[in-house]
Write a structure and sequence with these properties.
Layout lengths: L2 H6 L1 H6 L24 H5 L11 H21 L27 H7 L8 H14 L3 H8 L6 H11 L8 H15 L2 H16 L7 H5 L11 H16 L2 H19 L1 H25 L4 H5 L3
């Protein structure tokens, strides 16, 4: 894996620490959706700490700016460098998808299985795969012997000088703490109890939505009828218990408190993130690579 790919997706990987793990595998035979099957509730769910982590769109934006500068560097060395194809706005996941359990729209189609990557994500992934097969000479020019040199290092310096990459350690620590703290509040415990009662009435015995999603029975190539039925009942019970609404409200209060308690650490992390984003927008606007994808990051 080329190093820039690993670095700029770090925030996305870390976000999974605070979300439900998906089970099962994706298969080429499954048709990719036109856009992600995500509910309105999931797309609208925002939490205070979101401001301190990179969204998928922001990650792609920085990646594209870095890639544009790498192309300039590689061309200067007499080598071709194909920039990555863009990812469409509708193909990016909202930051809190599955945070409190299965999403209604996803579960209707895929149960607890991960949805297939949409077309623009597939194209970008294939472009990364193609880079892993580049000749050794091109790899060295792009990344240097260490994997962090070459035109990658040149591009980063042109982008932000000596500004370090945004760290997400603080965000990860606090978002995980907020999730669990909110889970222990009386109102969330009550909502989870209502959810369990609803599930039990339908014949299911799970302590919480995470356990339902993580059942080893769902480790199949495709969602089974039993998995689909469970997932649909799960989200129906979430709605009747108002689980997501109650949990999100409780966590919002917890996150506001944690932000006040960790203001200096978070302010520093956000300043680094904002510096990279501003530099990326500047590069892309001057290179003519602005698109609806990049404008979304301003919202």
């Amino acid at each position: 894996m080329p190093p820039s790919r690993a670095r700029t997706t770090t925030a996305l990987v870390l976000l999974l620490l605070a979300t439900t793990a998906c089970t099962g595998a994706q298969h080429e035979s499954t048709p990719a959706p036109r856009s992600l099957p995500v509910s309105r509730q999931a797309r609208q769910l925002r939490l205070p700490l979101d401001a301190y982590a990179s969204t998928e769109t922001e990650t792609y934006l920085v990646e594209d700016a870095e890639d544009t500068l790498m192309r300039r560097c590689m061309n200067g060395r007499g080598m071709e460098w194909k920039t990555l194809p863009p990812v469409a706005v509708q193909d990016t996941e909202p930051p809190n998808l599955r945070r409190y359990g299965a999403d209604e729209a996803e579960s209707a189609h895929y149960g607890y299985h991960p949805h297939p990557d949409p077309p623009s994500v597939v194209r970008r992934s294939r472009a990364w795969d193609a880079r892993e097969a580049l000749p050794a000479e091109v790899q060295r020019a792009a990344y240097g012997p260490s994997g962090e040199g070459g035109c990658l290092k040149t591009a980063d310096h042109q982008l932000v000088g000596d500004t370090p990459l945004p760290g997400h350690r603080t965000f990860n620590e606090l978002t995980g703490k907020a999730l669990e703290t909110a889970r222990r509040t009386p109102e969330v415990r009550d909502a989870l109890r209502r959810w369990r009662t609803c599930m039990a009435t339908a014949g299911y015995d799970y302590p919480d939505p995470y356990a339902a999603a993580g059942n080893k029975r769902w480790k199949t190539a495709e969602p089974t009828p039993g998995e689909l039925a469970t997932a649909r009942t799960d989200v129906t019970c979430q709605k009747s218990a108002k689980l997501v609404t109650v949990w999100a409200a409780a966590e919002t209060r917890v996150q506001h408190r944690l932000i006040r308690q960790n203001a200096d650490r978070l302010r520093e992390a956000k300043a680094l993130k904002d510096r990279w984003l501003a530099a990326a927008r500047h590069v892309l606007s001057h290179e003519g690579r602005t698109s609806h994808q990049h404008h979304l990051s301003d919202q």
